[in-house]
Amino acid sequence: MSAANTTTPAKVPPPRQAPPPPPDTPGRPPRRRRSAAGGAVPWGLLAPCLLVLVVVLGYPLVRLVTLSFQKFGQSQLWGFQPAENVGFDNFATVLGDSEFWVVVVRTIVFAGGSVLFTMVIGMLIALLLQRVSGWVKTLVNIALVASWGMPVIVATTVFKWLFDSDYGVFNALLSKLPGVDVVGHNWFASGPQGLAVIMLLVVWGAVPFVVITLGAGLTQVPKEMEEAARLDGAGAWGVFRYVTLPILKPIIVMLTTLSVIWDMGVFPQVFVMRNGHPEAEFQVLTTYSYDKAFVVNDYGQGSAIALVTVLLLLGVVAVYMRQMLKIGEVE
Amino acid sequence: MTTTAAPPRAADRPSTRPFVPARKRRAKAGWNVLGLLVFLVVGFPVYWMLNTAVKPAKDAIDPDPSLLPTGLTLSNFRRALDIADFWGPVGRSLVVSLTVVLIGIAVGMLAALAISRFAFRGRKVVIVAILAVQMIPLVAMIIPVFLLLNDLGQYDRLSGLILTYLTFILPFTVWTLRGFIVNIPRELEEAAMVDGCSRTGAFVRVVFPLLAPGLVATSVYGFIQAWNEYLYALMLMSQQKQTATVWLANFTTKHGTEYAPMMAGATMMAVPIVVLFLLVQRKMAAGLTAGAVKG
């Protein structure tokens, strides 16, 4: 408070606090009392949202857990038989199945590869965009936003066409290279090759977001710091490693965790690419869980697999949340 | 340290200022070539979709396809509309997406206000929960959601699909709107209240107009997400009531896949969405990682 206020006679209220809030004015609690006044208003505002979320998200989540401890098949679905509690049987069956572990490893390799390529290629393109002329930058940005905005299903059908064994343009172009002949090659005859194509599709769809976010981050790197590092004798790599990277680290952590979560949850790409029936060699955790539930009609086991997937992701989610807390998004 | 590095720089300076040295110009040209290459590779799938959609169907099944357009025809689009009902699925997708967005925005805005403008016990828990539920993969939830709708008699109903789409649209809306509200200075509201506005009045007259662009962006983005959803649409609706994404994914006839009409269908699905996306992309990208650099 200024000195003038202290000399004002005590009877005159300091101007800044005037007019005093009439006690009966509704909906205008003074700031200080806001937290003390309790949470009637905010909880009221939250109520519809929480209600909807509890019904459409909370209940299914609980059901997912209970289902994974039940024997639940066709007859339980139609209500002919009550669901029977079987304890950890579903988990024992799933975890004891060697195919499950193959699927887990395949999913981790697939998601890991996708994330790695997405981040590295995204970073390279973001750095490249800083060095090109304005018109090239505009062209690349147009292509990036167009591929980013493409619905996943559209992108998947387009890639299916690009990699068609007989008339796909990819085989035609690749065969033009000297010494390469892939005319009529079916990329989906083998799991690893087919998953590589699907990985390409996932990376193609994910790179734009990474490039544009990292690009925004790169503009925040102070030019003076790069200059100073260069004066100190750092090469291009040194500047990147010791100046750019540490400043971008929060963004990179966030993008990486988000990518892991998204790429572990890849479903339509695999499902549609394999015409709704992914072969054993193409199964990832999501399609495997779907298969167990809706093809084999064992909803209990399907739920157990889905639950294991969520648990696997929890660690990554924890890192993401920590980062969000650190940067003060969740004040 | 400046002294050791100064001599070479001092010699470099005069030449850098008036014109770009040849070496630097050549480096720039090299980067540009690389940039154009990135443009071609990234843009190619989109180009090929458009190219196939407008070329005569017989040119599409050429084992050695011409990279440039071979002709301009709308016959693929006509064929795509013939193969299966197109407007039915599109109409259903529109109804579902618009309803979900309307509910999401109305319910989500209240929740966003609560967590961004009020301090109350449990606020942090609510925020963390809303963030966390966005991290659950949709696929993991399909089994219980399917059973839930089955129990409620909402299987194969648009209302059931709308209900399930709220699982991802609502948390997203709350979180994004929160980001937009936080960026509106609280002082503006307080000034309005000092001038005699009620709390609600201050919101309607001050916050809401400033929030409007954010509301539009969030709605459009939410609409795109709902429109693009595939798995729930596939699992919870029968063949007769399929939505647009399922329509495209099922694009096969008994003669096999007809790729040229399929690309025409893909174009019809993609172009409006990409245009919508272009309109809001800048605003959303800022929102998704807002504040990430500050730390």
From TrEMBL, chain B:
What family, per the record?
Answer: Belongs to the binding-protein-dependent transport system permease family.
The UniProt record lists the keyword RNA-binding:
no
Q: For this entry, list what GO says about its biological process.
A: transmembrane transport
Q: Give the species.
A: Streptomyces griseoaurantiacus M045
**What's the protein name?**
Sugar binding-protein-dependent transporter
Q: Where are the transmembrane segments?
A: 29-50, 94-113, 125-149, 161-181, 202-224, 259-280
Instruction: Report the SUPFAM superfamilies cross-referenced here.
Output: MetI-like
UniProt keyword list: Cell membrane, Membrane, Transmembrane, Transmembrane helix, Transport
Question: Which Gene Ontology terms of cellular component type are present?
Answer: plasma membrane
Record localization:
Cell membrane
Q: Describe its membrane topology.
A: Multi-pass membrane protein
Give start and end of each ABC transmembrane type-1 domain: 90-280
